[in-house]
Amino acid sequence: MCLILFAFQAHANYPLVVAANRDENYMRPTATAAFWHDHPQVYGGRDLEMGGAWMGITRSGRFAAVTNYREGAPKGTAPRSRGELVGGYLTGVVSAQPYLQSVAMHQSEYAGFSAIAGDLDALWVLSNQANGVEAIAPGVHGLSNHLLDTPWPKVSKGKCQLESLLNVDPQLLPEELFAMLADRTVAAENALPNTGVGVAREKQLGPKFIAVDDRYGTRASTVVIVNKLGEVYYAERSFGVRGKFLGEVSERFNLLA
Description:
By secondary structure, the chain is an alpha+beta fold. Helices cover 18% and strands 36% of the residues. It contains 5 helices and 13 strands. The strands form 2 sheets. It has a 7-stranded antiparallel beta sheet with strand order 3-4-5-6-7-8-9, with helices on one face. A 6-stranded antiparallel beta sheet has the order 10-1-2-11-12-13, with helices on one face. The relative contact order is 0.20. The mean pLDDT is 96.
């Protein structure tokens, strides 16, 4: 997943609102969001190639997500899949801070990542490109293929948009979040980051929604809304080559008391 915009304890009506795009090779096998048959308390999509996940939430309110850290040319294959970081937390019982601290002890076994884990009371972030586990302050945040709140254009613009959307009619909020995620606008060249992939590729990867070739792009757009009553709305839209819409799944459930 390459863009996660989220509001954590930033609005009285919503302890958590998430709008995220997962960018991936179109050929990588994927299961759309659902309750996991082997862990029925977990809801989210799954990577069928390595068995991990990019984002999910449980009936008890545990939430996790991961993005890769863009490092230019590949440096070889890491021995462990980043997707296991999400699945490991969602299916476990250890709280987020010690869980991520345990991950940090062997973080070099993964390619570059930034991982978020926690619940409605506390969220934590760990990147193996930064210095240890950090608490995420209440507010509106964004994570792409770098560190939390790195001001890439799609992150900075998305945070401003999300903050304003928190005040729209609750019935309209999901569609407004999906519309934000569908933005294919390319930022000005001088505003793009330099992550070692070249200017042309930076332009291709710059929009929130990526649909530039037949190999790689936005595979899923996901909206998660948890309201103050503990009601969860999770919706995922799937896309194929060059952004072709493939379908939508959604689920509503109440968090366990």
